[in-house]
């Protein structure tokens, strides 16, 4: 749905590189994570899509059309620095932003009603924003972002400021939107917060894309064939024999449970058979790296 | 275009709905009048009346030196002079003893030299002047008597030479002194109105920009509308707010004038006598009022109103786009001060320069001040009641339109970059870079 080709952006007359030859491809109705530390260039890229700033070179396409001002109405953007008018009523505010996106007042009103019910906030309509807590204001911010039924939703640090309950509520809404066909780009530096939601990710560091792809593929690519094992009723003799065959890492003995990691590139079933001789198997799983670990490894390479 | 309208509407409604706006709009005229009354009261409160004993050995003052609101003269017999002098120190309610010697051989100089005022406390300078003038008047009358000429002759002597001017080029261009006064007054009022309007509401535009920047709302709006639309919407919205405030004030003052007018006509009959009545005789109030209204009616009001509105709006947009740019380039209000100076100084120059325009509306300074776009909104309006050649109005207007467009263009460029810059204050060098980008 969205395609970026070799986008480059510099600030301060070329002195500061914000994005270098950045290319990604975001498929329709997917959740795409832009992951990377602060200052990596995520927000710059988002601002380019929103046409707040312009790239120096490269091209961005939405549905194979070069990015142009008409696309603005199809995009919903929630910036990292949240902002609403403090001394303006919640309802007026939502209608105002809806109208700025080209909605009619009636349409904006009915959409707002829908979202207020979804987020269980219908009693807030007449309140001023300054009377709401930060978490409440975040919900309003979310409504403002999705009100005009955007085809492309861009959320910068979507869960910052939400308590776990509301974070889940928003998460469910995002997944529901995806189901309904909305393409969603999530940008965050807290990778663990979004990794289970994303279908695709791109890792960005120092203005460059480090890697991208399906979340599953990326993690598979970086797995080190490490298995985590927990055994009970370990027999000393068998364990000593086992130790000679495999290199044991991070051994721990707690409550008569022995847990350790093993790096194994051969058949896992053989490993399991060996383990059965040592003791009773409590758990056995392959350690798939988290996005954080993937990122650290990818940057190191 | 629709977006500009939406932004204007929001800006207008939020500002007008603010409690502070409602209170200020309704209370400002009342406060202003109250403040004026307070000042008048303070002057009154400080004024005190003094009482003097007068020993008149010459006999010419008795009966002629009359008490008035600020000084009371109590004539006492000659014989009590000594006793009064010695007890003056302890006397309450009496500020002094005025001793006037005998007049010999009509030697008034000697009389003046020998007269003295003994005091038991400090008297104000005003009181002293008043006593002196009272005495002088009596002496003058006495001198006239000795010279043997009538009072009418004296009045005739005092008459000023009145010079009528006539412009041979343009018959209508003869200004009587009164005309000139009326025009100066009008020119002052219009000029001040523009000056205050630009400063007060320009700053309001700046605050509003700054508020959006600090709220970070700006990023959301900018992802829906162009920065230029946002800036223009804001300026127009504040303009509408200002016009509303003006309208309320004008309505209030018209109603106030109508109410006061009925009260004033009864008051006029009660104005205390003395000098005032003399003045009233000299200048018939009715006649003055008629002449003023005549002068006002003679002015080309269509032109004045047209020029006023055009220069006022253009000047306001010129300056508020400057203010909008300033608001976008800084992070908080304290930082705005050094930049706002750039906006205030030229305007102030224009205004003070315009004071000289009033004494010579067609001088070179007046011409240049009303051409330079930084000062022309004030200076041209100051000149217009005196009549300005059409080509000058046209030229100045063209210059102002072009420079306003240019200012909007430059401001929009600074604004576009500035509103998304957080954390560091822009230097002049950076501003220049933004303009060139």
Quickly describe the structure:
The complex is a heterodimer of chains A (301) and B (437). Chain A is an alpha/beta fold and 301 residues long. Chain A contains 9 helices and 14 strands.
List the helices and strands and how they pair.
The complex is a heterodimer of chains A (301) and B (437).
Chain A: E1 2-11, E2 16-26, E3 31-35, H1 42-49, E4 57-62, E5 65-66, E6 75-78, H2 90-100, H3 105-118, H4 134-146, E7 152-156, H5 164-179, E8 183-188, E9 200-205, E10 208-214, H6 215-222, E11 226-232, H7 236-245, E12 248-254, E13 257-263, H8 268-278, E14 280-286, H9 291-300
Parallel strand pairs in A: 3-8, 3-9, 6-7, 7-8
Antiparallel strand pairs in A: 1-2, 1-4, 4-5, 9-10, 11-13, 11-14, 12-13
Helix pairs in contact in A: 2-3, 7-8
Chain B: H1 2-17, H2 19-46, E1 50-56, E2 71-75, H3 81-87, E3 96-100, H4 108-114, E4 116-119, H5 125-147, H6 151-158, H7 177-215, H8 217-222, H9 227-268, H10 275-282, H11 285-298, H12 301-329, H13 333-359, H14 364-369, H15 376-383, H16 390-418, H17 428-436
Parallel strand pairs in B: 1-2, 1-3
Antiparallel strand pairs in B: 3-4
Helix pairs in contact in B: 1-9, 7-9, 7-11, 7-12, 7-13, 7-15, 9-12, 12-13, 12-15, 12-16, 13-15, 16-17
């Amino acid at each position: 749905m969205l395609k970026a080709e070799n986008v480059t952006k510099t600030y301060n007359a070329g002195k500061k590189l914000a994005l270098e030859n950045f290319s990604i491809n975001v498929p329709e109705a997917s959740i795409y994570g832009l992951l990377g530390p602060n200052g990596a260039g995520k927000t710059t890229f988002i601002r380019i899509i929103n046409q707040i700033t312009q790239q120096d070179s490269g091209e961005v396409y939405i549905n194979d059309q070069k990015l142009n001002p008409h696309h603005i109405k199809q995009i919903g953007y929630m910036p990292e620095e949240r902002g609403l008018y403090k001394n303006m009523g919640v309802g007026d505010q939502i209608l105002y932003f809806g109208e700025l996106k080209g909605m009619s007042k009636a349409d904006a009103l009915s959409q707002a009603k829908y979202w207020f019910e979804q987020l269980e906030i219908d009693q807030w309509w007449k309140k001023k924003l300054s009377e709401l807590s930060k978490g409440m204001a975040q919900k309003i911010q979310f409504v403002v972002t999705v009100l005009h039924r955007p085809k492309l939703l861009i959320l910068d640090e979507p869960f910052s400021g939400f308590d776990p309950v509301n974070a889940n509520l928003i998460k469910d809404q995002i997944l529901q939107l995806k189901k309904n066909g909305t393409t969603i780009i999530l940008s965050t530096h807290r990778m663990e917060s979004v990794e289970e939601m994303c279908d695709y990710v791109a890792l960005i560091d120092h203005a460059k894309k480090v890697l991208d792809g399906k979340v599953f593929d990326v993690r598979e690519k970086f797995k080190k064939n490490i298995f985590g094992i927990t055994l009970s009723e370990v027999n000393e003799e068998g364990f000593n024999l086992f130790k000679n065959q495999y290199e044991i890492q991070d051994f721990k003995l707690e409550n008569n449970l022995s847990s350790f990691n093993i790096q194994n590139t051969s058949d896992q079933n053989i490993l399991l058979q060996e383990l059965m001789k040592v003791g009773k198997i409590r758990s056995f799983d392959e350690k798939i790296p988290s996005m954080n670990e993937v990122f650290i490894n990818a940057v190191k390479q | 275009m629709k977006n500009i309208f939406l932004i204007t509407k929001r800006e207008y409604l939020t500002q007008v709905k603010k409690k502070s706006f409602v209170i200020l709009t309704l209370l400002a005229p009342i406060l202003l009048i109250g403040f004026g009354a307070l000042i008048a009261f303070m002057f009154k409160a400080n004024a005190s009346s003094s009482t003097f004993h007068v020993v008149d050995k010459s006999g010419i003052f008795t009966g002629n030196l009359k008490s008035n609101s600020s000084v009371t003269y109590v004539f006492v017999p000659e014989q009590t002079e000594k006793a009064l002098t010695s007890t003056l120190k302890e006397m309450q309610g009496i500020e002094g003893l005025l001793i006037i010697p005998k007049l010999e051989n009509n030697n008034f100089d000697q009389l003046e030299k020998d007269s003295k005022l003994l005091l038991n406390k400090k008297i104000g300078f005003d009181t002293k002047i008043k006593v002196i003038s009272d005495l002088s008047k009596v002496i003058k009358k006495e001198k006239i008597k000795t010279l043997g000429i009538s009072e009418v002759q004296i009045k005739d002597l005092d008459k000023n030479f009145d010079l009528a001017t006539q412009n041979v080029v343009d018959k209508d261009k003869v200004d009587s002194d009164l005309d000139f006064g009326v025009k100066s007054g009008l020119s002052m009022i219009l000029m001040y109105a523009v000056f205050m309007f630009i400063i007060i509401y320009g700053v309001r535009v700046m605050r509003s920009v700054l508020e959006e920047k600090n709220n970070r709302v700006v990023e959301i709006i900018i992802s829906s509308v162009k920065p230029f639309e946002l800036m223009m919407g804001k300026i127009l919205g504040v303009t509408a707010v200002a016009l509303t405030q003006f309208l309320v004030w004008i309505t209030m003052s018209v109603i106030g004038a109508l109410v006061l007018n009925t009260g004033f006509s009864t008051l006029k009959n009660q104005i205390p006598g003395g000098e005032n009545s003399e003045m009233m005789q000299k200048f018939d109030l009715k006649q003055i009022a008629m002449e003023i209204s005549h002068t006002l009616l003679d002015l080309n009001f269509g032109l004045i109103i047209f020029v006023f509105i055009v220069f006022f709006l253009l000047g306001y947009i010129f300056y508020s786009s400057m203010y909008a740019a300033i608001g976008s380039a800084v992070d908080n209000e304290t930082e705005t001060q050094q930049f706002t100076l750039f906006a205030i100084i030229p305007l102030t120059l224009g205004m003070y320069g315009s004071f000289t325009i009033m004494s010579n509306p067609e001088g070179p300074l007046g011409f240049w001040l009303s051409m330079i776009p930084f000062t022309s909104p004030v200076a041209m309006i100051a000149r217009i009641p005196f009549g300005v050649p059409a080509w000058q109005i046209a030229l100045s207007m063209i210059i102002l339109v072009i420079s306003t467009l240019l200012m909007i263009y430059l401001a929009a460029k600074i604004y576009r970059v500035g509103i998304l810059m957080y954390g560091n204050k822009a230097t002049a060098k950076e501003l220049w870079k933004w303009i060139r980008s």
